[in-house]
Design goal:
The complex is a heterodimer. By secondary structure, chain A is an all-beta fold. Chain A has no helices and eleven strands. In chain A, the strands form two sheets. In chain A, strands 2, 4, 5, 6, 9, 10 and 11 form a seven-stranded mixed β-sheet that branches. In chain A, strands 1-3-8-7 form a four-stranded antiparallel β-sheet, with no helix packed on it. In chain B, about 0% of the residues lie in helices and about 55% in strands. Classes of the chains: A mainly beta, B mainly beta. At the A-B interface, β10 of A face β4 and β9 of B.
Chain lengths: ~120, ~110
């Protein structure tokens, strides 16, 4: 299994500002994903971070709001732009060794974001 | 719309009690069912992934069963311990949905010593 770290672990931000969350994996992985869990909601996939190309966003999520970088096979960042209180969530990155299938996803510990 | 439902939403038990949770998912076009445990301030931890109807998996005191025909999975914890306190999440992948994980809301378990 992969060991995944995220920074920051939590933050409190003012509306209108942006926050960049970092995800570091201890081994090279093909697939990296970004999720969020809003209060009282289930985990929701934001996008798949592709190495060497633009991220693939899920319905309801756009690049301008959640720009993602994936400079190599062990690192990715997610930026939450122009934040509003509705962006208060836990943001998680995860990795999988293969494209879809029954491969287990391994998660980071999450970033707990509160927007005032 | 693909929907995963978990029940109960929360559960409080005494140390030593056995307990079980339910995960319901669409039975058509089934691909896999995952169970995770998520303790506060930690990473969600994969417990099981099951693909075949009738699958049973076991890890220590925790076991899970799968019925793909009727669209449900049970997670059992035998002799609950305080360290079992966590949120238990199930996630479903559908063969036609690019195999993305669709998550339930989870069952929050609190085990009192």
């Amino acid at each position: 299994s992969a060991v995944i770290s995220q920074k920051p672990s939590r933050d409190i931000c003012q509306r209108g500002t942006s926050l960049t969350i970092q995800c570091q994996v201890d081994s090279q992985v093909t697939m990296m994903f970004w999720y969020r869990q809003q209060p009282g909601q289930s985990l929701t996939l934001i996008a798949t971070a592709n190495q060497g190309s633009e991220a693939t966003y899920e319905s309801g999520f756009v690049i301008d709001k959640f720009p993602i970088s994936r400079p190599n096979l062990t690192f990715s960042t997610l930026t939450v732009s122009n934040m509003s209180p509705e962006d208060s969530s836990i943001y998680l990155c995860s990795v999988s060794g293969a494209r879809g299938g029954v491969d287990t996803q391994y998660f980071g510990p999450g970033t707990r974001l509160t927007v005032l | 719309i693909l929907n995963v439902e978990q029940s109960p939403q929360s559960l409080h038990v005494q140390e030593g009690d056995s307990t079980n949770f339910t995960c319901s998912f669409p039975s058509s076009n089934f691909y896999a069912l995952h169970w995770y445990r998520w303790e506060t301030a930690k990473s969600p931890e994969a417990l099981f992934v099951m693909t075949l109807n009738g699958d049973e998996k076991k890890k220590g005191r925790i076991s899970a069963t799968l019925n793909t025909k009727e669209g449900y999975s049970y997670l059992y914890i035998k002799g609950s311990q305080p360290e079992d306190s966590a949120t238990y999440l199930c996630a479903f992948t559908n063969a036609g949905n690019n195999r993305k994980l669709i998550w339930g809301l989870g069952t929050s378990l609190a085990v009192n010593p």
